[in-house]
Specification:
Elements: H1 2-21, E1 38-40, H2 53-63, H3 74-111, E2 113-115, H4 118-124, E3 130-136, E4 145-146, E5 149-150, H5 151-169, E6 174-179, E7 188-192, H6 195-207, H7 217-230, E8 236-243, H8 247-250, H9 269-274, E9 282-288, E10 297-304, E11 309-310, E12 314-323, E13 337-343, E14 346-347, E15 351-353, E16 361-369, E17 374-383, E18 393-401, E19 404-410, H10 423-429, E20 439-445, E21 459-463, H11 470-481, E22 485-489, H12 497-504, E23 516-521, E24 529-531, E25 556-560, H13 566-570, E26 577-583, E27 590-597, E28 600-605, H14 623-635, E29 645-646, E30 650-655, E31 660-667, E32 677-680, E33 682-684, E34 687-694, E35 699-707, E36 713-720, H15 733-740, E37 745-749, H16 752-755, E38 763-764, H17 766-804
Parallel strand pairs: 3-6, 3-8, 8-9, 9-37, 11-18, 19-20, 19-21, 21-22, 22-28, 29-36
Antiparallel strand pairs: 1-2, 2-38, 4-5, 6-7, 10-12, 12-16, 13-14, 13-15, 13-17, 17-18, 23-25, 24-26, 26-27, 27-28, 30-34, 31-32, 31-35, 33-34, 35-36
Length: about 800
């Protein structure tokens, strides 16, 4: 009976403490261990589980109040006790268990236990306090449209959810947020999250937009590793990477030749060897925003063949189209693609691409003729569009010239036209009549070379010159080094070979690619000439023919020195040379040799340009005219205006010094939303240079430059997407495992369960504990009443049996 009274007192205590626990959520007094799958919101109050011992103590103390007294009727009670011992013992243990359970549930309600879902527990890890580093991939490939948004929206949502979880579960851990487009500075510097700060961090993430840049994670991971390694207190670090894990970006080697995550394996290596400093333990969590391979058609590149674009003359534009759909569209066959070109906004006839071949890639050519000189903007678009629109358009910025200036130096002039050394060459380059070749030709005699300024010419052709003066050699050398082209045709005026080689070849340090040896005369009808490999100058030559033409024979020529191999040329100061054509004599003597000298080119032809030593100028197939035009175009000074840049590259423009004012203004395609950038001239060798910040917009930038004498000029600069971003193939889990190279890591998918899961990361168990507490208390009261009633009835029967002298059953 005393035990039951004690039990009622304890039950009453439980009822009194139930009401305040049923109120609003209580703030944790001590931060829970964030890296366990379960815990308590009020861990100090978990000591209430010691109340479980209270019923046991009361039971033991109550038993001590009984004293053993022997009297006559005791034997009847002992017999009844022996008969009912098991039942009474069971009743006592059951009541004691319910009372202990009630105390445990009461402590649980006060301490508020919880469990975490498996996803959150895995994300947060299994170690103590850690530095939390969130890396969000904002590269261009995240701009792929999925449903009503793009993949970057999913990446931001995953990052925001992660920040909310960290703010709730690990508010004491420092959190840093990076984006791949800016490896130099974090988007959110290291901060500890409270509720208000967590909202600010989420807002900063939400304000970010997908970039037009390629992800270069190796540099970012190296920067993070360097910061962790330099930390005074190297602790554990969890690095969360939220990305599409595009294979071209994340798999392979970084700029240092090491794998993307390799810098993380070297954190603390030096401190491990020198001091007893605790080395950081790094864990990487990869969160993929997509599970599926995305189909994509892309315009990979757009190029103009000609080094110079001449107004009114046709030029070829080559566009490379690729299909990354894996060979077919959803309908089972590749879609028909159309390439549309616009020149300064004017549409050109479209070109249909109906067969990309097995490789899924094809280059199509289109002929363009730009009517007016000046700057020109070309836009090439691929249709129909797809989910990744950024690589469906590319742009070029061209400078169109009215003509190319060619200076012909005549070493053997003559009154009679056909006897003149350069008669055929001059007419091939600038034919009389209304037809224009785009070349403006000027002819001077060899004696006039010294007094001619080469500044206004793009190409100089020396025809049968015996020996230029030293001043002319110096002027020609400067001309070539600055980007001009030089063509040298030999002939009968070349008599003093040693002196010619000394000033023109200079043991490999001069203008000529090789030394000129001795003259040779071919027997009978002469020898032919064949091309060696493909080259613009010899494009008119048949690749399989035994000679240019059966009508073209070379009766006399000079033997040239041997051309150094590429390996030997690279190990010496001599520029690499290349044989473009050979004679068909027994020695296979070089006929046409090319080499580069800094920014310019030099071509050496071993025979004459007129009819004195060959009959090429009269070839009925027109190969002479075509070859001379191609030679002048190839040698001509390259247009130094950059035609296109990749996003992420600085915009660099070079020009002749002292031609423009020292400052210029650069406006992005988003101007005036983007503030104009002021650029300052700097020296780049013999040239001046303007150097901008890395371009982050796709489209055409406008560079405004003020000439020292003249009106303001606006130069267009085209910026396109890096072609590697078009390949949307994802790295597999196995490839990512290899890239992580033993670093502890987990891989998750930012699917609907990740993004749209419960807002609360912990599931509290106190409501269930409160219900169980009520059930335990009610059950204990009912059983105590029932057992007491049965015991009271049994005691009455025993008293009646004793009074009648009968033994109760």
């Amino acid at each position: 009976i005393a035990d039951r009274r004690g039990a009622k007192r304890i039950s009453g205590l439980a009822c009194r403490t139930r009401r305040p626990i049923g109120g609003s959520r209580m703030t944790p007094l001590i931060a829970t261990n964030p890296l366990l799958a379960a815990g308590f919101l009020n861990p100090l109050l978990a000591g209430g589980f010691g109340l479980v011992a209270l019923p046991i103590l009361i039971h033991l103390l109550s038993r001590r109040r009984f004293r053993r007294l022997d009297w006559a009727a005791t034997r009847f009670l002992l017999e009844a006790e022996r008969e009912n011992r098991r039942r009474v013992r069971f009743e006592q243990w059951l009541l004691l268990a319910l009372r202990c359970l009630a105390m445990a549930l009461l402590a649980a309600v006060v301490a508020r236990p919880f469990v975490r879902p498996g996803l959150v527990a895995s994300l947060l890890g299994s170690h103590g306090q850690a530095a939390r580093i969130i890396v969000i991939d904002d590269s261009a490939s995240l701009g792929v449209r999925v449903g009503g948004g793009d993949e970057y929206e999913s990446a931001k949502a995953a990052a925001a959810r992660l920040v909310q979880w960290l703010a709730q579960e690990a508010p004491g851990d420092p959190v840093t947020v990076w984006i791949t487009s800016n490896p130099a500075e974090p988007l959110v510097p290291e901060t500890r999250l409270d509720k208000g700060r967590a909202r600010d961090v989420v807002a900063q993430i939400e304000r970010s937009v997908v970039s037009n840049l390629r992800a270069k994670p190796a540099g970012l991971i190296a920067s993070i590793a360097q910061r962790l390694d330099a930390s005074k207190d190297l602790s554990t670090a969890d690095i969360y990477v939220i990305s599409d894990f595009q294979k071209s970006d994340w798999i392979g080697s970084g700029e240092s030749g090491r794998s993307t995550f390799e810098p993380l394996t070297r954190i603390g290596a030096e401190s491990r060897q020198v001091t007893s400093k605790t080395v950081a333990s790094v864990r990487v969590v990869l969160v993929s925003v997509t599970d599926a391979e995305m189909a994509n058609n892309a315009l990979l590149s757009v190029e103009i063949e000609r080094p110079q674009i001449i107004a009114g003359l046709p030029t070829a534009l080559n566009a490379t189209v690729a299909d990354f759909t894996g060979g077919s569209s959803a309908g089972g066959a590749r879609r028909e693609l159309v390439v549309q070109v616009e020149v300064d906004g004017a549409a050109q006839p479209p070109v249909t691409v109906d067969d990309l071949g097995v490789a899924g890639q094809k280059t199509v050519s289109m002929e363009l003729a730009i009517a007016d000189p000046g700057f020109c903007e070309i836009s090439v678009r691929l249709s129909p569009g797809d989910a990744f629109a950024a690589d469906d358009v590319r742009r070029l910025a061209l400078r169109v010239r009215d003509s190319v200036s060619v200076l012909i130096v005549n070493g053997q002039p003559a009154i009679e036209a056909y006897a003149d050394e350069v008669h055929f060459l001059r007419n091939a380059l600038a034919p009389p009549g209304t037809f224009s070749s785009g070349l403006r030709v000027e002819v001077v005699d060899a004696s006039e070379l010294d007094g001619t300024s080469l500044t206004n010419f793009d190409c100089v052709l020396l025809c049968n010159i015996a020996r230029p003066s030293d001043s002319a050699i110096a002027a020609l050398t400067r001309f070539v080094r600055d980007g001009g082209g030089l063509g040298v045709f030999l002939g009968s005026e070349l008599n003093d070979l040693p002196d010619f080689n000394r000033v023109m070849f200079g043991d490999g340090a001069g203008l000529l690619p090789v030394a000129v040896r001795d003259p040779a005369t071919a027997p009978d009808r002469g020898v032919g000439m064949v091309r060696i490999g493909e080259h613009p100058v010899t494009a008119a030559f048949s690749p399989s023919a035994e000679s240019i033409s059966e009508y073209v024979r070379f009766r006399s020529y000079f033997r040239l020195g041997e051309v150094a191999s590429a390996d030997s040329a690279s190990s010496s100061s001599q520029p690499a040379s290349r044989v473009l054509a050979r004679f068909t004599d027994a020695e296979q003597s070089p006929a046409l040799v090319e080499h580069t000298l800094e920014r310019g080119r030099v071509l050496l032809f071993a025979s004459s340009v007129d009819l004195e030593w060959n009959d090429w100028a009269r070839a009925p197939d027109g190969s002479y005219v075509v070859s001379m035009l191609e030679m002048a175009s190839y040698l001509a000074r390259r247009d130094e205006h950059p035609r296109q840049f990749n996003a992420g590259e600085p915009l660099v423009v070079t020009f002749a010094p002292d031609t423009f004012q020292p400052t210029a203004v650069l406006k992005s395609p988003a101007y005036p939303e983007d503030v104009a950038e002021e650029l300052q001239q700097s020296a780049a060798g013999d040239l001046a240079e303007l150097h901008s910040k890395p371009a982050t917009r796709l489209g055409t930038y406008k560079l405004e430059m003020q000439p020292r004498n003249g009106l303001l000029e606006t130069w267009p600069l085209a910026v396109n997407l890096d072609r590697s971003e078009s390949d949307l193939r994802r790295a597999s889990d196995e490839e990512l495992d290899v890239a992580l190279n033993g670093i502890p890591h987990s891989i998750f998918s930012a699917n609907e369960g990740f993004l749209n899961g419960d807002a609360e990361t912990r599931r509290e168990l106190w409501p269930s504990a409160l219900i169980l507490l009520a059930v335990a208390l009610v059950s204990e009261q009912l059983l105590a009443w029932w057992f007491g009633k049965v015991e009271h009835s049994g005691a009455g029967l025993r008293r009646a049996a004793i009074g009648s002298g009968e033994t109760p059953v």
